[in-house]
Amino acid sequence: MSGRMNEIDYLKCVCILLMVIFHLTYIGDKYPYAKQVVYTFHMPIFLLISGYLTNIGKSIKEFLKKYLWIFIPYAVMETSYAVASCLLPVRQGLEELSLPAIIEAIFVSPVGPYWYLHTLILCALLYYAIFHLVRGEAITRFIILGLCLYGLTCLHLLAYENAAYFLGGCILAQTHVKLNRFFRPSIWAIIPFILLCAVPENLSRGSLSGIIITYLASCLLLYFYPLLTDRLRRGSLYIGQHTLAILLFSPVFTMLAKGYLPLLSFDPTGILFLVTATALAVGGSLAIEQMLYRSGLSRYFFGK
Questions:
Q1: Do the beta carbons of residue 183 and residue 219 sit within 8 Å?
Q2: Cβ contacts of 26 within 8 Å, gap of 6 or more
Q3: What is the pLDDT along the chain (304 residues), one digit of tens a residue?
Q4: What DSSP string runs through the chain?
Q5: Concatenated DSSP letters for 150-190?
Q6: How far apart are CA 301 and CA 304, in angstroms?
Q7: Contact, 42 vs 85, CB < 8 A?
Q8: Membrane spanning segments where (predicted)?
Q9: Closest to 18 measured CA to CA, from 292, 282, 293
């Protein structure tokens, strides 16, 4: 896809902020139902956008180079997280620290928030390979792609519901449907959204209700985009254009947030901690990214 769609960067901004917020263990534990609702739609939106924006029109050299420079920071940060999970009280970490366990975390079953990059790389490479090696109509290629993605789920390399959202984005791109036209901004989306989210059984991204919730959440979020002030719009677009850095580095700050949580415990709602920790995580991640670029180290980390 050529050019940038501001609405896409805005959606990415909202989703990455929700990711940071509910990776704060204290907030997730304090508002478990809100976390369950958010987890139903925020990463599906990310995956749908990722599939939509994956450019398979590049040469194989350019395409592989792009994903190599996603894999390298992913591997570095996944390794760091895996090691830290053995030394710190981290949920869903490694049970033992060993080279085979780290290799498995990188290539098979990531620990922590980096599963998204693992899924993105696998889905994108398979998407490119199928559409360049298989002859025939787009529908035939998509059927083969879907079957291959299902095969990867059988090998426990990814979750099929996540791959399905990526596949949905690919279909929208190949049929030339603009994403900001597919999602119809509407304040009325809030009514069915609330009704669906009020039933706990609906809160599964892999179910039909989860798909509808994801669609309604996107429509509702896009309704508010034109209502933002210029400053908020510029800020949201900037964050949306730098989600990779926030995804990579924010776990460092969410882990550190446990250290200053007692200082903010006087607020029983946890909102002050939420705002402080999210601001530090996002600001710190962007600062690390800028430091890497200004020092020249980014060429070894991001390839540019």
A1: yes
A2: 257, 258, 261, 270, 273
A3: 444 689 999 999 999 999 999 999 999 999 999 999 999 999 999 999 999 999 999 999 999 999 999 999 999 999 998 888 777 766 666 777 888 888 998 999 898 889 999 999 999 999 999 999 998 898 999 999 999 999 999 999 999 999 999 999 999 999 998 887 899 999 999 999 999 999 999 999 999 999 999 999 999 999 999 999 999 999 999 999 999 999 999 999 998 998 999 999 899 999 999 999 999 999 999 999 999 999 999 999 999 8
A4: --S--HHHHHHHHHHHHHHHHHTSHHHHHHSHHHHHHHHHHHHHHHHHHHHHH--TTS-HHHHHHHHHHHHHHHHHHHHHHHHHHHHTT-TT--SS--HHHHHHHHHT---GGGHHHHHHHHHHHHHHHHHHH--S-HHHHHHHHHHHHHHHHHTTSS-HHHHHHHHHHHHHHHTT--HHHHS---GGGHHHHHHHHTSGGG--TTSHHHHHHHHHHHHHHHHHGGGS-HHHHHHHHHHHTTHHHHHHHHHHHHHHHHHHGGGGTT-TT-HHHHHHHHHHHHHHHHHHHHHHHHHTTHHHHT--
A5: HHHHHTTSS-HHHHHHHHHHHHHHHTT--HHHHS---GGGH
A6: 8
A7: no
A8: 9-27, 33-55, 67-90, 114-131, 138-159, 182-199, 206-225, 237-257, 269-288
A9: 282
What tokens were used for 272?
Answer: 């002050």
Amino acid identity, position 74: Y
- Token pair in block for residue 106: 């990188």
Structure tokens, 289: 């990214």
